[in-house]
Amino acid sequence: MTVTADDLARATKRLRQHPADYSAWLEVAALLGALGSIEDAEHAFATIGEGARVSGKVALAVACGRHLAELGSVHGPELVEQIVDTYATGGPHFAFEAPPAPDEPPALAEPAGDPITQARIVIEALGAWLTARQAKQATPAPLLSALSKPGARALVGVMTTRAFATGATIIEAGTPATALYWIAHGSVSVRRDGAELGELHSGAFFGEIALVGGTTRTASVVAREESWLLEIPARAVENAAGKHPKLAEVLAFHARARLLANLTRTSELFRALGDEDRELLLAKFTSELVPADTTFIHEGKTNEYLWVVVSGKCAVKSKGGIVAELGPGAAVGEISLVSGVPAVADVVAIEPAVLLRLAKQDFEATAKRHPQLLAEVEKLVVKRETANRALFQDASDLIV
Length: 400
Description:
Mean pLDDT: 83
Helix content: 40-55%
């Protein structure tokens, strides 16, 4: 796409009108680079990065540092080192606070000169304001604050910046997990089977579910707008988590939270409950990582749990054949749990799967308080038994 000096003039005018808008800053920086004004572009990205660092927009600050490093600018390593010093505390990582509201930016008249000169003047004037918006206290960053300074430095060193146009697919459901993504700027939509599970915005990271669970991607992720992301190779994340248990804890914490949030949007079992009841019920489930080819419900044996597939695939098998396949959101084990009779089929993980399980005693206690849950499970029992009868009837027709 060809850019012109007029494009830069329009972007600079927008920046002058909206100096707190990082989209405007990034557009000006990118246009300066595209027009060949490399030093001005580097100065703009360094200004954005420092402004992001002091105001708590850590992913954006890191992206600016990595982008500058990729350009060969000395500002890149300098910015990264400042970010590491500020945020790699090895300390708290679940509490997040917004920085205080900034003072009003200075009012600027339209500067004189050609578009590049105008952009240079505006960046200099507004940059002093942007980089002075220091938060009173550095707030933890979800990834870096779990690491020591050497660990954070190493992890940032393998991150690469990637730009995605509106509508571009970032992750495809069912594909192998090769990276973790951290949103520097923009927003993305998380989707499964045509349904939107939610949105993620600047500062959020995603892709950890498949890394933690050892499964393939459980959902697709699409850019809702032009977005700038940091891509972190899976091997680097695994190495860092192995050396720094707090990072593994952060990833597991967020993975479970995301899995539960996705589950409540996709499983028939939970849609009948209100938000408060749903949260109380989910808290009683325990998570299980089930390796491929593992049987977790055995035909002819008593089943003591209600199971819900969160990621991966499972198969219902009887007489050596597959009766049905179960994907994310599906509940299984409810027939034997409600009726008390032995399981009528084996249930096996086809691939590595993350499952939630609810013990029978917890299910019974919860069902007493929430009759709608029992009603929903009974619907699933009827549906499953009807499907099973139809299947076995079809099979009997084949016997001659």
